[in-house]
From TrEMBL:
Recorded superkingdom: Bacteria
Lineage, top ranks: Bacteria, Pseudomonadati, Pseudomonadota, Alphaproteobacteria, Hyphomicrobiales
Domain Xylose isomerase-like TIM barrel: start-end pairs: 22-247
GO molecular function: isomerase activity
InterPro entries linked to this entry: IolE/XylAMocC-like, Xyl_isomerase-like_sf, Xyl_isomerase-like_TIM-brl
Protein name from the UniProt record: Sugar phosphate isomerase/epimerase
Organism: Aureimonas flava
Keyword terms of this UniProt record: Isomerase
Pfam families given in the database record: AP_endonuc_2
UniProt xrefs under Gene3D superfamilies: Divalent-metal-dependent TIM barrel enzymes (3.20.20.150)
The UniProt record lists the keyword Isomerase: yes
Length: 285
C-alpha cells in the first residue's frame, strides 16, 4: 500500500516544503498530499522535480471547489485547479460535496450540486485528472447511500471517491461494507482515528483549523475506536492513501503510525477475512 502524509498536518507549523519532504523521506512515506493553499503558494516549478528526486510523489491535492459560485467563477476555479494539479504532477484533486448534510439538502439544490461536480469532473477528466469527493459529515457524501446516489446521478468516469474510513463510520456505515458498495469507485483513502464517538467533534473544521483548537481525542491510528489492524488487512494490495493527522507530536505520531501500518500490511494482509470486521478496538487478553 502506497502511503503519504498530508501537509495540512503542518498547518500551524513554520516549516518549508523541503523540511516536510525531508521528514517524509526519512520516515519512509511514498509521497506528500498537498493541501490546496500550500500547493498554490509553494511554486511547483521549483519543487516538483526536487520531490521526485527524493523518491516522493504528490498523489493528491486536497482542495475545495466553490460549487455555489457563479458559472464563470466556477469554471475559472476548475481550470486553475487543473493547472495546479498538472504542475505538481498530481493525478487527483479532492473536494467536498457541498456544505450541508444530505438530510438538509433539498432536491433542487442536490441536483445543482451534483451537476456542478459532474461538470468539474468532466473538465478535469479531459486533462487526465480525477476529481475525488470525500466521505465527510455535513456534505452530500455523509452516508454511503447518499454518496452512491450522487455518483449514480453524475456518471462521470473521472468522478471518484476519497474514502475516509473514520467519517464513513461516523455516518453510521460499516467501512468494509461501504467499500464493497462503492466497489470500483474508490480511488484514495484517508486514515485517522478517534478515541471515542463522543470525541468526533474534534474533527469539525472550525476546531481543526483553529490554532488553539482542541486536540484531545485525536489518537494514533491503532489506539482509537476503529480497529485498523483488521480494516487495513481488508484493503487491496494496490490501495493508496494518506495518514491524516491533525494532532500534536506530528513527526513522532506519523512516523510511528506509518511503521505500524507497514507491519500490519506486510505480516497479515493474506489473512484478511471475508466477513465485516468488528469495528471497535480489540483489547488485550
Amino acid at each position: 500500500m502506497r502511503l503519504s502524509l498530508c501537509t495540512i498536518t503542518f498547518r500551524h507549523h513554520l516549516l518549508s516544503i523541503r523540511d516536510i519532504a525531508d521528514f517524509a523521506r526519512r520516515a519512509g512515506f511514498d509521497g506528500i498530499e498537498l493541501w490546496g493553499v500550500h500547493a498554490r503558494n509553494q511554486g511547483p516549478g521549483e519543487h516538483r522535480a526536487w520531490l521526485a528526486a527524493q523518491g516522493l510523489a504528490v498523489p493528491m491535492i486536497s482542495d475545495y471547489l466553490p460549487l455555489d459560485a457563479d458559472a464563470e467563477a466556477f469554471a475559472r476555479r476548475v481550470e486553475e485547479m487543473g493547472e495546479m494539479a498538472r504542475a505538481w504532477g498530481a493525478p487527483r484533486i479532492r473536494t467536498f460535496a457541498g456544505r450541508k448534510g444530505s438530510a438538509d439538502t433539498g432536491e433542487r439544490e442536490r441536483a445543482f450540486l451534483t451537476g456542478r461536480l459532474r461538470e468539474a469532473a468532466a473538465r478535469l477528466g479531459d486533462r487526465g485528472l480525477r476529481l475525488l469527493v470525500e466521505t465527510h459529515p455535513g456534505t452530500l457524501a455523509d452516508t454511503t447511500a447518499s454518496l452512491v446516489r450522487l455518483l449514480d446521478e453524475a456518471p462521470e468516469p473521472a468522478l471518484r471517491v476519497n474514502f475516509d474510513l473514520l467519517h464513513v463510520w461516523e455516518g453510521g456505515d460499516d467501512p468494509l461494507l461501504a467499500r464493497r458498495r462503492l466497489a470500483g469507485r474508490i480511488d484514495y483513502h484517508h486514515l485517522k482515528n478517534v478515541r471515542a464517538r463522543r470525541d468526533l467533534a474534534v474533527f469539525r473544521p472550525a476546531n481543526v483549523y483553529a490554532a488553539a483548537g482542541r486536540r484531545e481525542g485525536m489518537v494514533p491510528l491503532f489506539e482509537g475506536v476503529l480497529d485498523y489492524d483488521r480494516l487495513l488487512r481488508a484493503l487491496p494490495a494496490g490501495a493508496e492513501g494518506s495518514l491524516e493527522w491533525f494532532g500534536d507530536r506530528c513527526h513522532e505520531v506519523l512516523a510511528a503510525d506509518l511503521a505500524a501500518v507497514r507491519r500490519c500490511r506486510a505480516g497479515r494482509l493474506e489473512e484478511a477475512p471475508d466477513e465485516a470486521p468488528r469495528l471497535g478496538r480489540r483489547r488485550a487478553g
